[in-house]
Amino acid sequence: MVASIKHTLVASVEDKPGVLNRVASLFRRRGFNIESIAVGHSEIAGLSRMTIVVDGANTAVEQVEKQLYKLVDVVKVTDITSDSMVARELALVKISSTTATRSEILQIVDIFRANIVDVAPDSVMVEVTGDENKIDSLLDLLKGFGIKELVRTGRVAMVRGTDGGSPIDEESVQKITRRRKK
Amino acid sequence: MRLNGAQILCEGLVKEGVDVIFGFPGGRVIQFFDTFAQYPQLHFVLVRHEQAAAHAADAYARVTGRVGCCVATSGPGATNLVTGIATAHLDSAPMVAITGQVDRPSLGRDAFQEIDITGITLPITKHNYLVMNADEMAETVKEAFHIAGTGRPGPVLIDVPSDVWVEQSEFKYPEKVDLPGYKSVVKVYPEQVKKAAKAISGAKCPIIIAGNGVIISDAYAELKELAEKAQIPVINTLLGIGCFPQKHVLYYGMTGMHGMAYANYALSEADLIIAIGMRFDDRVTSKLSTFAPRADVVHIDIDAAEIGKNVKANVPVVGDIREVLTELNKDIEKQSHADWLNQIDQYRAEHPSHEIRDCANILPQNVVRAIAEVSGGDAIIVTGVGQHQMWAAQHSIINKPKSFVSSGGLGTMGYSLPAAIGAQMGRPGETVWSIDGDGSFQMTLQELATIQQERLPIKIAILNNGYLGMVRQWQEFFWGKRYVATPITGPDFVKIAAAYGVPGEVVSDRNEVKAAIEKATNYDGPYLLDFRIEPEENVFPMVKLGSAICELLEQPKSEVKTW
Ligand SMILES: Cc1ncc(C[n+]2csc(CCOP(=O)(O)OP(=O)(O)O)c2C)c(N)n1
Ligand SMILES: [Mg+2]
Fold first, then answer.
1. Do A30 and A74 have their domain in common?
2. Whether residues A60 and A76 fall in one domain
3. Same domain, A98 and A32
4. What's A18's domain CATH number?
């Protein structure tokens, strides 16, 4: 067994209908195992940014990169795994609570610098951001109280410092901007 | 200039140099056809099934190197194109397929003949478009032809809602494309070329496997120069047929499942494989873990994703084949590999692979050879899929590149007849032979009507064995000779052809093969020959599925008589 090495890929894609479908279809068809994928706008109008987490143990990461590049709507792909990066995930979790357990929950939430964002008579909703480990640990501790509902965003990531990361070259930016104007 | 969507598309087709479109009409493309009629420089070929339109466009592209074009209506018209688009996709044939779509207000409502063809063709096109307003049309056409025809070529689909055909827009055809995510020109890294040269100069037993990429990139002279300078033997894939002179001393034939035994032995013994414009398909490598165990690999391809996909490359070189080889040839020094070449020559002497047994019936191999002889190797050969395809590949003489047309990647039965139409339209002055199986022919024989309507002088040779022969061969070898679902009857092909206005004859005497082929060749028009061949003839050599490529079944020696 190859040890699980999670790779973080950043893909900058043109903001067009169907582009997520193209990426998802590619992953399915090639049997790429994707742990998570998070999509949203980037700093450039017309360009979306995807953060894709791939387990290198069961998927050839280089193939994922190369195949992504073949999609016409994909402008740039970077594997930032070995860069120094900030990686975050957000989770909302609804936990059963009673007056007896609420303060204990609050304490745990505090330690993790998470927030209570909603309180109901028999449950609380917690919002937490952090890397996957932090979220996993928090969930572990909260499990005992009874998790009623959970949602996680999947990883988003950015390389530290001014250099590095996944900059888009000026020419591509111009092309994207021109296309948006049309 | 204000034009509507249909006019803009037609203007774009003219600007892109399209001269022929294959297709079939329907409710959602009426508007397009109505406009099309005003462009006499665009010739329309009415096929009898949309699959044939796609195959014809694909073959037109393969024999000309230009982008082929086809059109179909929404729904069933579009889905009928799918097999043809997939065929083109797997063999990297440049094609633009245009489909009509329900009008915009009906989209997503399951309207009559609405089908999500961009969704369906997502994994079988290089790219596709749904044109949501006429303003996008000009740019879409420009991009579609650019994407289809550059880099690693492939099919692109343009889906047009019917109200976009009639929507007006200001027409200005873009000079260039603005695609931030698509690079048609791949920069060749000189360090990689240097590494390749170094690997080649260090090899004792190098071998070149040349594929379709050499043909697409017109790199014949460069390939020949490389082989001659470094004295490297050359073998090719099925789709690489014609990329290297077949009479050359360094040529050792086709490799793969039904390749020449000596080519496969050489490949297994090589210490360096120089893979050029090929993708290590499993029909070439067979069981990957046993493939070319001693060899390092220099892999040259324009598609970076092909490198390292199936076989690890020690030296990857990404780029246009011709450009890479031009650079590589500058760095290559004269070499000789006399011992290595002698060794392969010896393999060839011991395992000629071209041997044919003696038989009272017509042997299909001899039909192919007679076609080669009569045409002098100057005909375009277009095959179906099955045994006849392999015999055509093994025994044809192909003097010119882009003249062996066959569905390699998808293996699409029914390809031959419609593809022959595209080939003949692409190269009107040349002889086109459709070498087809009786099974394959029955999948698309309605295209005889198209041939007749267009007065195309296509010559058709059916290698009629009364079987879905390739499957029967597998049943014979691996399934206890249980011929389930493989005996196939057919109509009287000569009568069928006659009904379509195409003359023909049955040939069942082995002594009449050549005369019949001469007659067909000299006939001024299409002609069909129904060769009643030895029913249970097998294709040799054959690599068993799951074995190494050097473990071949060969024609039993006892049966062989020199022909
Ligand atoms: C559309 C399609 N269906 C099924 C097959 C599977 N198949 C491969 S070869 C073959 C037999 C082909 O028969 P025929 O055209 O008569 O050629 P022969 O092998 O007899 O020369 C079949 C059924 C295929 N390749 N394509
Ligand atoms: Mg047959």
1. yes
2. yes
3. no
4. 3.30.70.260
Which residue CA neighbors atom 11 of ligand 1 most closely? B468
Q: Which of B122, B147, B303 lies closest to A22 in CB terms?
A: B122
Same domain, A12 and A40: yes
Say whether residue B180 is in contact with chain A using an 8 A CB cutoff. Answer: yes
Name residues whose C-beta falls within 8 Å of residue B233's C-beta, 6 or more positions apart in sequence.
B206, B207, B208, B227, B250, B251, B252, B266, B337, B340, B341, B344
Whether chain B has a CB inside 8 Å of the CB on A179: the answer is yes
The alpha carbon of residue B348 is apart from the nearest alpha carbon of chain A, in Å, by: 38
Q: What is the CATH number of domain B190-350?
A: 3.40.50.1220
Q: Which two tokens stand for residue B224?
A: 């020949």
Pair B32, B121: CB distance under 8 Å? no
Strand ranges in B148-295 using DSSP code E only, listed in sequence order: 155-161, 168-170, 206-210, 234-236, 251-254, 272-276
ipTM: 0.91
Contact present, B464 and B438 (Cβ < 8 Å)? yes
On whether the CB atoms of residues B529 and B494 are closer than 8 A, the answer is no
CATH code, A147: 3.30.70.1150
Per-chain residues with Cβ under 5 A from ion ligand 2:
B 437-439, 465, 467, 469
Four-residue CA torsion sign, B219, B221, B227, B230: negative
Q: Which amino acid is at B199?
A: A
Which atom of ligand 1 is closest in space to residue B411's alpha carbon?
25
Class (C level, CATH) for B2-170: alpha beta
pLDDT of chain B along its 563 residues, tens only?
A: 999 999 999 999 999 999 999 999 999 999 999 999 999 999 999 999 999 999 999 999 999 999 999 999 999 999 999 999 999 999 999 999 999 999 999 999 999 999 999 999 999 999 999 999 999 999 999 999 999 999 999 999 999 999 999 999 999 999 999 999 998 888 999 999 999 999 999 999 999 999 999 999 999 999 999 999 999 999 999 999 999 999 999 999 999 999 999 999 999 999 999 999 999 999 999 999 999 989 999 999 999 999 999 999 999 999 999 999 999 999 999 999 999 999 999 999 999 888 888 899 999 999 999 999 999 999 999 999 999 999 999 999 999 999 999 999 999 999 999 999 999 999 999 999 999 999 999 999 999 999 999 999 999 999 999 999 999 999 999 999 999 999 999 999 999 999 999 999 999 999 999 999 999 999 999 999 999 999 999 999 999 888 999 999 998 877 765 43
